[in-house]
Specification:
Elements lengths: L9 E7 L1 H5 L6 H13 L4 E4 L19 H11 L4 E6 L6 H10 L3 E7 L7 H10 L2 E7 L6 H14 L3 E5 L7 H14 L5 E5 L7 H10 L4 E4 L13 H11 L7 H12 L11 H9 L5 H12 L3 H10 L9 H16 L1
Helix pairs in contact: 2-3, 2-10, 4-5, 6-7, 7-8, 9-10, 11-13, 12-14, 13-14
Length: about 350
């Protein structure tokens, strides 16, 4: 399918939201301001800024942040001139009142995220967001876990509630380009022409950039990436590499590849306490279809109970665990320890 007839695609950075997972939600306000300013100067359209699990995600279950969402949002908003500050909200974690507070702190765009079969829980939050004046997009997470036809039904619900854009979200980094093409094409063919389609990818099978390209070629006009790929699991599509590929393909983004590349190397890579890369554990996320943000939680459980991280991830995949079930990771580790003892 041809590249969509749009003057330029909309580039969304997630370094300061999905990237929070990789840093255990410990990004400083100074780092947020520095990164936001650099992305703004590089021409990125929007910057997502919250705890990795979205508004009000700071908790015992998901991990406590070094600062509040409002402090992070405020730091980013003060550092930009043109980029939109975006927030993530997962119904059941974030509340309608959080949207009001975030708007007051400077956010102007929101992505409301649900599991790929649970779009019905987004209705209230979409309507509140639209009433507040947010650019309102929605995420269908773990999109590999349902068929393109079923995904369309969920996207149509979000559209009926008022979503202006619906994203195909490969939260596990489990999809290949043909999988992305099938889902984005299905949404584009069934949603209203004015409802945009977006694509959000992860690198767990090393296809983050390829899947982003597949999404754009299939009709998506919004695309996510992060500096140096900073994100859950093996990270997101590295925005600097993604923009370089789009430049080579003649896909207009309005972004400065050289500045993004310099920011990735000079500012973001030094923040990493664990390399964000495809390795044995992060590769297993994509192979087993496991939610990318489970990686750091599984690594901790593996250390606590002396069991391989990869074993925990495989079992999570078998049980089809989804985002929001982080508290079950310890239970899975204990089950594996019990089974190992029984077999010895």
């Amino acid at each position: 399918m041809a590249i969509p007839n749009k003057e330029k695609i909309y580039v969304q950075d997630v370094t300061m939201r999905d990237g929070m997972h990789a840093l255990r939600h410990q990004m400083s306000l100074d780092d947020v301001a520095t990164i936001a300013g650099a992305l703004d100067r590089a021409g990125v359209d929007a910057l997502e800024v919250t705890h990795g699990d979205g508004l009000s995600g700071s908790s015992f279950n998901y991990g406590f942040g070094s600062h509040s969402d409002l402090d992070w949002i405020g730091a980013a908003a003060e550092a930009v001139k043109t980029a939109r500050i975006t927030v993530l909200l997962v119904p059941g974690i974030g509340l309608a009142d959080d949207l009001k507070d975030a708007y007051g702190a400077g956010a102007r765009s929101v992505r409301i995220a649900t599991h790929c079969t649970e779009a019905d829980v987004s209705r209230q939050h979409i309507r509140v967001a639209r009433d507040l004046g947010y650019d309102t997009a929605c995420f269908l997470m773990m999109a590999h876990m349902t068929s393109p036809e079923a995904l369309v039904a969920q996207a149509l619900l979000m559209e009926s509630y008022g979503a202006e854009c619906v994203y195909v979200v490969d939260s596990a980094g489990a999809m290949l380009p043909a999988d992305v093409t099938a889902r984005v094409t299905a949404l584009r063919e069934n949603l209203k022409p004015e409802t945009e389609v977006g694509i959000h990818t992860h690198e767990n099978l090393h296809h983050g950039v390829a899947n982003a390209v597949a999404g754009i070629r299939s009709g998506a006009v919004r695309v996510d990436g992060s500096l140096a790929g900073l994100g859950a699991g093996a990270g997101n599509a590295p925005i600097e590499a993604m923009i370089a590929v789009f430049d080579r393909l003649g896909i207009e983004t309005g972004c400065d590849f050289a500045q993004l590349s310099a920011t990735a190397d000079d500012i973001v890579r030094p923040l990493m306490d664990r390399p964000v890369r495809v390795d044995r554990e992060s590769l297993m996320l994509g192979y087993a279809g496991v939610y990318s943000s489970f990686l750091r939680h599984a690594e901790k459980a593996a250390s606590d109970y002396d069991i391989p991280t990869s074993d925990i991830l495989v079992e999570l995949g078998k049980r089809k665990m989804i985002g929001g079930q982080e508290d079950m990771i310890v239970d899975v580790a204990l089950d594996l320890v019990t089974a190992r003892k029984a077999a010895s």
